[in-house]
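Table S2 (text version). Query chain:
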Amino acid sequence: MSNSAQIGVTGLAVMGRNLARNFARNGYTVALHNRTSARTHALVEEFGHEGDFVATETAKEFVEALERPRRLMIMVKAGEPTDAVIQEFAPLLESGDMIIDGGNAHFEDTRRREHDLRGQGIHFVGTGVSGGEEGALNGPSIMPGGSKESYASLGPMLEKISAKAPDGSPCVTHCGPDGAGHFVKMVHNGIEYADMQLIGEAYQLLRDVAGYSPAQIADIFRTWNTGRLDSYLIEITAEVLSHVDAATGKPFVDVVQDRAEQKGTGRWTVQIALDLGVPVSGIAEAVFARSLSGHADLRAASRELAGPKAKPLGESEAGAFADRVEQALYASKIVSYTQGFHEISAGSDQYDWDIDLGAISAIWRGGCIIRAAFLDRIRAAYDARPDLPSLLSDETFAQEIAAAQDDWREVLVAATRQGVPAPGFSAALAYYDALRADRLPAALTQGQRDFFGAHTYRRVDREGSFHTLWGGDRSEVEA
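Corresponding structure-token output:
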């Protein structure tokens, strides 16, 4: 078989199929492989007119169809299925070839695989791909890791198939070595969880407190999407809220069970943040909110617990309240991105990845789920100050948060008085207030830890670690 294909894709479910078509549409010859060859031939039969495909039946044929250095992209389920595919193809490859994992792999698995294959001279490129099936076909945001050498060969191809930002730049950058790409994609998804939770809370407040119908809230979101909240998620929220169920004539959101599912990346973001010691409370609340929504029996058993029932506001008050919700949503979004970028920075330091936060925000401006207009400003903030300790330290964002203060707090007062849960808004404001506090109760916590476990503490007036002898005269000793 002629080695004429510039790239090969194995695993031709929706994402793999659409990425293969994207490469072909952009002028590349694409080798195709799937565990069941019927799917391979179906793709060629249905979409062969879109470009040049080479259908293969076996792993050997697939590898032989690729030009050197071979670029082999695997699009299968994370975990053991990915390992199985690597074990099948690695023995057929040569030094300098590369395996590209475009699935939602855990970054530690990517680090392990990259290390193991490096010993064989094979480049392993863990690559985050965001944008769903539409993005895969028409241009996703792409977050590759791996060696610089692999990106020199693969990067131009990824740049060609990627989404393009409003300024025309490709939404792809080399994130860093080994697992950096999948780490960045993980945090992207964590921010996505937080973003969706905050939007959901805004919807519930507008419905239960302001008294708006789903169609009216859709119009509010459309208006918001023309301003600073301009984003893909705000756009599709308006579409979902305006949709009417054909079978019942009811709003779509009223016929869907309020039980949100998850695939794991949001949970990983929180777990890794705990390991790194980085507070991502907004993302955590979003993950927990999805978990709570699924405990139907617990919720049913608790439905009659004491508490206020929301009473919708009058028409004139509702409009003013909606404006306050917009302020709270925007301020909380800034906090969520602040936490996400803090985690990326901490991961970069921990694993020596040297991730460029400005470049990451730039490639999220198109193709991905969290694409939003204000990412341009995040990029500008990090470009101006690469050592920026927090987005909240940026003068422009700090001014906007300051302007949102009263409304943000008033929304949470209303939510509490009316009994409407707003864990995302609450966590964001608590994080913000904790950052600006002169003193936190952690001093008391350390005293408690020293009392029951002799864990020691540090003083504000001199260096060193100390322990108080709590049981006797309570004298202090240097630890």
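Notes on Table S2: The chain has a mean pLDDT of 95. The chain has 20 helices and ten strands.
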